[in-house]
Design a protein that fits this description.
The protein has one domain: Orthogonal Bundle (Hypothetical protein af1432), CATH 1.10.3210. It is globular and about 40 Å long. The protein is built from 11 helices and no strands. Helices cover 62% and strands 0% of the residues. The chain is mainly alpha-helical and 184 residues long.
Length: 184
Amino acid sequence: MSYPTTVAELLELYLAKGDQAYGEEVTSLEHALQCAAVARGAGASDELIAAALLHDVGHLVADVQGNERYDLSQDDDIHEAIGARVLSPIFGAAVAQPVSLHVTAKRWRCTVEPGYLERLSATSRATLQAQGGLLNDAQCERFQNHPGFAAAVTLREWDDQGKIPDREIPTLASYTELLEKLAR
């Protein structure tokens, strides 16, 4: 598994593989752009906009979505960990940490927020089990005390909002300057 190491390589990856479906009604690239647009619209920091844009890069690197033997409800591609490994050397913790925690944020919200699980997309519900299911009390407390808690939960909210077919969104190129500014 080869990791992108520059902003240009990240953008190339999204252009090469972003048109892949991943179980939602939008492509990976459309999802990324929608999440970033929602983050930008919320007045998020540049680092959180980048995290919103790139939070699923681990799916593209793992590249298992098209594998017919891959079962979303059984197999976890650990995309949040792969994504953080990709993003940390390029952007640092402010971008990588929310990415590394956005799956835990989903698990936490499913555990503590009545009705959240039912509002998830069918794909997000299916992947929940493969990603570890609900958190126990100790896991909830540990996550709530994590310094990245608030950013991860916010990113998770934008993740849920970024799955609308035919939504008008800015292009990937419109984020190039922001990403290059943040790159180490």
